[in-house]
């Protein structure tokens, strides 16, 4: 059985205020063409269909167009909700849409109820595990402590129990939206940390033939049977070296996996450049970047006048400008943003406590801070679900 694994469409998302809807429409065209040209049997979409819980109308129209075109091809599609989606909104009408071969899986309680499809070698059970927010689903899965590994492990126990009741030789595919240990993140994924922990081990997917993952935006192979497709478009400059693609996966009669990457259209290349303003304006080696979306970091000791306007003269598609002035010894003076980059909210808060009080928080105070951050994040999630 031939599968096309994709995820993280983020329909409606902009790139530094530049609309990507045309690029997203081009991706849907490419997706449909690939399904037809490669004789795909099943399309898998592993979450984050939309970029936010209440997407703009134009994004909904792109999604609607994709559903109609996939249904017209007669190729089944299995799709789950991600942490950016409103599971309830995405799942509206799932029963009716399922009759057209578009199988939306957004309810955590139904994660062990597969879509069963067949080929000449027998049945393949497709289990859709939507994004499982630990604080919201811990009671459903009866786990003692809310955490990603606990709830995803409990969901996979249900999957394995259902699979054990099926005819011998039934192959299995799981769609999941999570941060799996070993995956490489980028700057454009939303933080899903709970209690200081956000990742789950790949071993949680033991017992299934293929785990089609979503959430991380870079295409990655964690093992032969566990893969991220990544996002079809770049959503941050940290993805400038990503090769955006989908996985074309052949699932053999005994669960064997053969996979190849299908490249996605690139609307415009990304480039990060750094140096003094006049050097950036004159350096001939930067000519290949003149048609790119550009993030420029100026290193002038004194901020030059009208830097964005001047840089736009050479780089008309520049989108981001940062300043990192060099000291006399040639080293950067770190900006506030640079000092915070890559740091968790908990670390920033602890440093603030130390700055104000003269001593950092003790273990009990750290626990209070972490609980507060978890409560705020869960509260935001609940508000999105309710909207």
From TrEMBL:
<keyword id="KW-0540">Nuclease</keyword>
<dbReference type="GO" id="GO:0004527">
    <property type="term" value="F:exonuclease activity"/>
</dbReference>
<keyword id="KW-0269">Exonuclease</keyword>
<feature type="domain" description="Calcineurin-like phosphoesterase">
    <location>
        <begin position="1"/>
        <end position="218"/>
    </location>
</feature>
<dbReference type="InterPro" id="IPR004593">
    <property type="entry name" value="SbcD"/>
</dbReference>
<dbReference type="Pfam" id="PF00149">
    <property type="entry name" value="Metallophos"/>
</dbReference>
<dbReference type="Pfam" id="PF12320">
    <property type="entry name" value="SbcD_C"/>
</dbReference>
<keyword id="KW-0255">Endonuclease</keyword>
<dbReference type="InterPro" id="IPR029052">
    <property type="entry name" value="Metallo-depent_PP-like"/>
</dbReference>
<comment type="subunit">
    <text>Heterodimer of SbcC and SbcD.</text>
</comment>
<dbReference type="InterPro" id="IPR050535">
    <property type="entry name" value="DNA_Repair-Maintenance_Comp"/>
</dbReference>
<comment type="function">
    <text>SbcCD cleaves DNA hairpin structures. These structures can inhibit DNA replication and are intermediates in certain DNA recombination reactions. The complex acts as a 3'-&gt;5' double strand exonuclease that can open hairpins. It also has a 5' single-strand endonuclease activity.</text>
</comment>
<keyword id="KW-0235">DNA replication</keyword>
<comment type="similarity">
    <text>Belongs to the SbcD family.</text>
</comment>
<protein>
    <recommendedName>
        <fullName>Nuclease SbcCD subunit D</fullName>
    </recommendedName>
</protein>
<dbReference type="InterPro" id="IPR041796">
    <property type="entry name" value="Mre11_N"/>
</dbReference>
<dbReference type="InterPro" id="IPR026843">
    <property type="entry name" value="SbcD_C"/>
</dbReference>
<feature type="domain" description="Nuclease SbcCD subunit D C-terminal">
    <location>
        <begin position="267"/>
        <end position="355"/>
    </location>
</feature>
<keyword id="KW-0233">DNA recombination</keyword>
<dbReference type="InterPro" id="IPR004843">
    <property type="entry name" value="Calcineurin-like_PHP"/>
</dbReference>
<keyword id="KW-0378">Hydrolase</keyword>
